[in-house]
Amino acid sequence: MHRDVVVVGGGIAGLAAAHELALAGRDVLLLEASPELGGKLRAREVAGVGVDVGAEAMLNRRPEGVDLARSVGLEVEHPAVVSSRIWTGGALRPLPRSLMGVPLDLDQLDASGVLDRAALDRVRREPSLPPSEVGDDVSVGDLVDARLGPAVTDLLVEPLLGGVYAGRARRISARAAVPQLVAMAERGSLLEQGAAMAPAGATYAAPVFAGIAGGMGRLPAAVAAAVRAAGGEVRTGATVRALVRDGGGFRLTVGPTTAAETVTADAVVLATPAAATARLLGEVAPVAADALGEVEAASVGVVTLAFAADDVPELVGTGSSGFLVPPVEGRAIKASTFSFAKWAWVREAGAGAGVVHLRTSLGRHGDEAALQAPDERLVEVSLADLHAALGLRARPVDTHVQRWGGGLPQYAVGHLARVARVRAAVAEVPGLAVCGAAYDGVGIPAVIGSARLAVRALSPH
């Protein structure tokens, strides 16, 4: 079988690339190894209600995600304007306005009670520091430690970064993860610039986040349908085991060794995780393969809990969308999201069944052993932490545990240089491109953006 373009990987990156290629009139085949499309976008029924068990939101202020959703006929919804809290020092405290945990409002920070007096005094001295000399790169934690003190890193930055990257602040690249923070530090005071950037009482026309009515898990199927409608082919259960050059194009070995199929293509887009991409690039772009082999990944788990609404009056009407947990607190969970309070569609769907849904997330880089416990254990440790944080004693009427093994690539210090090496090596192979969460950001819009870069990088048709 010969195709114009083969896209390997059916997560949102691969689907977005295939969608753009198909709309451009390319003869595209998408191959996904697992039985299900979507990668980290997935929905499951919990207490009879379909809810997200993977990514539940995307940035709204970056357009790629909402544009793709609308282009395939899905209705975009924004979360309720409710507060988030942080569980530290034995209490749920208001989460101060911040840039990835770096405080932007000293009065809010003081009132929150997150920091003790000595740590607050250290923060207040930050404007007297000279601009930071970041150099090639630095970890987020080291940059924040130097300017604001380690308590800000431990209690505010770590829980925010843990939610996005499931990583460790003192290992994650500042230039890759929070470039705005680096630019601010190189100019001078973070606090002074932060206060000017987000003055107290400021309101913004565009919501920060967006979702899809019915769940982000609807997006993969809708994009796949659009690919097929445009003449493309989408296959699941099709593992690509090898990729080699074949004249001016490529030869892919697909399927089990006992029944391998050969597919040839003029161009290939690899939209697979870093480790899988490294394996496939071993022969065609060994320098890129070596660089991608350096990218580590974190495993995470999402526990979804459905409670009878009448059993949890302490949750309903709190005006909160959930809470974050700093790792120094030593808890099992790193966050809890009150899905029913955050998303109108979840609340309405649950009301019909007399239930409310919330979820906990577990797992940071290096914590893989904790996630190896049975599902029942992850449910119980989640309930124990919810009881300690909220006084919640009710038992759920239904649960679901979703594990994402190696699901989040880690942007270690030097990540941007590493990605540049990968792309330079891949660019030396005509008709080859890469995309996904391992390159320019782990959020949905960033991943879609990387897919568009990959499509543009292909040799002209």
Automatic annotation (TrEMBL):
<dbReference type="InterPro" id="IPR036188">
    <property type="entry name" value="FAD/NAD-bd_sf"/>
</dbReference>
<protein>
    <recommendedName>
        <fullName>Coproporphyrinogen III oxidase</fullName>
        <ecNumber>1.3.3.15</ecNumber>
    </recommendedName>
</protein>
<comment type="similarity">
    <text>Belongs to the protoporphyrinogen/coproporphyrinogen oxidase family. Coproporphyrinogen III oxidase subfamily.</text>
</comment>
<keyword id="KW-0350">Heme biosynthesis</keyword>
<keyword id="KW-0285">Flavoprotein</keyword>
<dbReference type="InterPro" id="IPR004572">
    <property type="entry name" value="Protoporphyrinogen_oxidase"/>
</dbReference>
<dbReference type="GO" id="GO:0004729">
    <property type="term" value="F:oxygen-dependent protoporphyrinogen oxidase activity"/>
</dbReference>
<dbReference type="InterPro" id="IPR050464">
    <property type="entry name" value="Zeta_carotene_desat/Oxidored"/>
</dbReference>
<keyword id="KW-0274">FAD</keyword>
<dbReference type="Pfam" id="PF01593">
    <property type="entry name" value="Amino_oxidase"/>
</dbReference>
<dbReference type="GO" id="GO:0005737">
    <property type="term" value="C:cytoplasm"/>
</dbReference>
<keyword id="KW-0963">Cytoplasm</keyword>
<dbReference type="InterPro" id="IPR002937">
    <property type="entry name" value="Amino_oxidase"/>
</dbReference>
<dbReference type="GO" id="GO:0006783">
    <property type="term" value="P:heme biosynthetic process"/>
</dbReference>
<comment type="pathway">
    <text>Porphyrin-containing compound metabolism; protoheme biosynthesis.</text>
</comment>
<comment type="function">
    <text>Involved in coproporphyrin-dependent heme b biosynthesis. Catalyzes the oxidation of coproporphyrinogen III to coproporphyrin III.</text>
</comment>
<feature type="domain" description="Amine oxidase">
    <location>
        <begin position="12"/>
        <end position="458"/>
    </location>
</feature>
<keyword id="KW-0560">Oxidoreductase</keyword>
